[in-house]
Amino acid sequence: MPQLHWKSKISASRKLMLKSLMVAKAKEELEQEIVEKDEQKAKYLEEKAPPIQTGGLSLAELRILCEELHARIDVVDEERYDIEAKVFHNTREIKDLNIKVLDLRGKFKRPNLRRVRVSADAILRSLLGSKHKVSLDLRANLKSVKKEDTEKEKTVEVSDWRKNVEAMSGMEGRKKMFDAAKGQNQ
């Protein structure tokens, strides 16, 4: 489908004039809004706090008027304190809930992990460094065990251990055991 290019039929001077008219209209509306807010504020204050006539009042009447005003102030302070306590409680509850939400979904977005195929040798090389040559051929590292060797070991283990206890004690005995084991392996 071919793209349609709309050429502006309004000249630059006309655009500038329209923009200036729009700005002027917005400025008028903003000023009108400020005036309306001031009028609403004055009206509210007249309803809630009518002007006090103190002229021609005696000292006793002034005291009574002050006590009434102080009573009203106390009521308003109590309401303000209650509202502040509710706000404080709600903000604390909101913080706790935000912490719970963060705990539930995790503190950070975990990236999608890609599956990477790495051989065991490559893992060992990366852990130990390239200087160490390690192969993970486990079968090559295992000792081959023959059935005859296990039977010989069992017969050696079964012999009485109390024989030659004194002969095998100390460093000389350990040397004899080492030499005996070395002789059997060869």
Automatic annotation (TrEMBL):
BP-aspect Gene Ontology terms: cardiac muscle contraction; skeletal muscle contraction
Residue ranges the record marks as coiled coil: 23-79
Keyword Membrane annotated: no
Tree of life domain: Eukaryota
One MF term in the entry's GO annotations: actin binding
Role, per record: Troponin I is the inhibitory subunit of troponin, the thin filament regulatory complex which confers calcium-sensitivity to striated muscle actomyosin ATPase activity.
Family per similarity comment: Belongs to the troponin I family.
Protein name per its UniProtKB record: Troponin I type 1b (skeletal, slow)
Organism: Neolamprologus brichardi (Fairy cichlid)
Lineage: Eukaryota, Metazoa, Chordata, Craniata, Vertebrata
